[in-house]
Specification:
Nucleotidyltransferase, domain 5; alpha/beta; five-stranded mixed sheet; 4 helices; 26% strand; 140 residues
């Protein structure tokens, strides 16, 4: 069974996934939904069936001082929708502080052009979210 990393945003959702053995993490795609969660849920349903996902790992947008951002409530509503749509799939959250910054640094290092950055930044952030979860759980 695989784990799916999710970087949930207002108009785009980055998706990353583990390999079948749960060893590596790869970016999968960015879902452009423009505020319509039905688009995201439909695509996630397809991904869950195709890859046999057993866990969603969602980044929580926490401020640098550890307080909740305004986006936390929006993210929690999305998590509720996930729980209703996929009751058998475990849901975990990860503090996503600085994942977007790290994604931009990675893209700059790789000389990714400006137009491509917008389409892949969320996917790379989802990779970082999933990697943090995997590292945290390999210690347990």
């Amino acid at each position: 069974m695989r784990k799916l990393g999710i970087d949930y945003g207002d108009s785009r959702v980055g998706i990353a996934i583990t390999d079948a053995l749960g060893i590596t993490v790869q970016g999968l795609e960015t879902i452009h939904h423009h505020g319509n969660d039905k688009v995201v849920l439909k695509r996630l349903e397809e991904i869950v069936k195709q890859y046999e996902v057993d866990t969603f790992v969602i980044g929580m947008p926490i401020n640098m001082d550890g307080t909740k951002t305004q986006r936390v409530e929006v993210t929690e509503k999305f998590i509720h929708k996930l729980k209703c749509k996929f009751p058998k799939i475990q849901i975990a959250t990860v503090d996503e502080r600085l994942t977007t910054v790290a994604a931009h640094k990675t893209m700059n290092f790789l000389n990714v052009n400006k137009k491509q950055k917008r389409n892949i930044v969320d996917t790379i952030s989802a990779e970082y979210i999933l990697e943090m979860y995997m590292k945290k759980n390999e210690k347990n």
